[in-house]
Design brief:
alpha/beta, 8-stranded mixed β-sheet, 13 helices, elongated, 40% helix, D-Maltodextrin-Binding Protein, domain 2, 3-stranded mixed β-sheet
């Protein structure tokens, strides 16, 4: 009986081990951008119910997501910023950028009665450079005749963490302001010349709401969710554009590269909102690294495919711009290039 008991115990142990390994392959971890978090939360909840795959996504900012992907502590990262050459070198292997939707970064503020304020690119740059200090500044007043702008001191609110939102915003300012480009530049983290820092889009939104006379930048979804005012911005064609889903989608009506590593800021599209950008899922092209299994790679690829296809229907109701047909087609090719041991995961 003892040999039989041993066999039974070994089979039970093997079964438990297999079940545990299967469960691990059905759980994914991600971290990064705060901008798509409301959308990703919805997507991952729906996906878990439909496919039994649990996704744990931590909204820690794009910079954090990039670092965790490089450190291989997550299955995928989330980033509003395209990884720098330095980041890609640190990754040690090719990293793919898969766009999941597009969003707009808006200039939000806290003023009496919260009027709609029109901004030109140079005015926005000079506000965040600390050159324009009062709301009734002549340049702002000239753009907004009839608006009741107070003589209130401005308090600039910016991100304190590594942020793809900051990367998009500073990338735009670097394109439209020589002074900004030379003094501050672009990136996920900056040496800010003025203002107070707050963590994440929720942090900036909260601090703006608490600070009379303040001005900051957040993703459109956070301004809408918190019923915060935001300004119209003059685009490259000279038109003042209201940040909307349509204007965000229109910003992408440009030539898109096959790798989708493209900036939509200061778009040349006539009806495009000028501070728009894609947000990306970032992951290694070769999924066989560390102790990752083929099943884990397959689970990741299926999730990302679903997010860029069936999951797109959840974007617009949550105030995100879904992928255009052209963007989706290019995204499909990127996902199909993901491999495990040199063999494409999607056949």
């Amino acid at each position: 009986m003892k040999p039989l008991l041993l066999v039974v115990l070994l089979l039970a142990f093997a079964g438990a081990f297999t079940a545990s390994a299967f469960a691990q392959d059905r759980e994914l971890t991600g971290a990064g951008a705060t901008f798509p978090y409301p959308l990703y939360s919805k997507m991952f909840d729906v996906y878990a119910q439909g496919y039994g795959v649990k996704v744990n996504y931590q909204a820690i900012g794009s910079g954090g997501g990039i670092r965790q992907l490089i450190n291989k502590t997550v299955d995928f990262g989330g980033s509003d910023a395209i990884m720098t050459e330095e980041d890609l070198k640190s990754a040690g292997a090719p990293v793919l950028h898969v766009p999941t939707c597009a969003g707009a970064v808006v200039v939000t503020y806290n003023l009496p009665n919260n009027p709609v304020v029109k901004f030109t690119p140079d005015i926005v740059a000079d506000i965040f450079l600390g050159k324009i200090r009062k709301w009734n500044d002549q340049r702002i007043a000239a753009m907004n005749p009839g608006a009741n702008l107070p003589a209130t001191e401005m308090t600039v609110i910016h991100r304190s963490d590594g942020s793809g939102t900051t990367n998009i915003f500073s990338g735009y300012l670097s394109k439209v302001s020589k002074d900004w480009k030379e003094k501050v530049g672009e990136g996920t983290s900056l040496n800010w010349p003025a203002g107070l820092g707050a963590k994440g889009n929720p942090g900036v939104a909260g601090l703006v709401q608490q600070t009379p006379g303040s001005v900051g930048y957040v993703e459109l979804i956070y301004a809408l969710e918190n019923k915060m005012p935001f300004g119209d911005l003059q685009n490259k064609k000279g038109k003042f554009i209201r940040p909307t889903l349509a204007a965000t989608s229109a910003a992408a009506n440009i030539s898109l590269p096959d790798d989708m590593k493209v900036s939509l800021t200061d778009t040349s599209a006539p009806d495009g909102y000028p501070i728009s950008g894609f947000t990306f899922i970032i992951l290694y092209k070769e999924q066989k690294y560390g102790d990752r299994t083929a099943d884990k790679a397959n689970t990741v690829v299926k999730l990302v495919w679903w997010m860029t296809h069936e999951g797109q229907k959840y974007a617009q109701p949550l105030q995100y711009a879904p992928l255009s047909k052209t963007a989706q087609e290019k995204t499909e090719k990127i996902i199909k290039s993901i491999a495990y041991g040199g063999k494409e995961v999607m056949q």
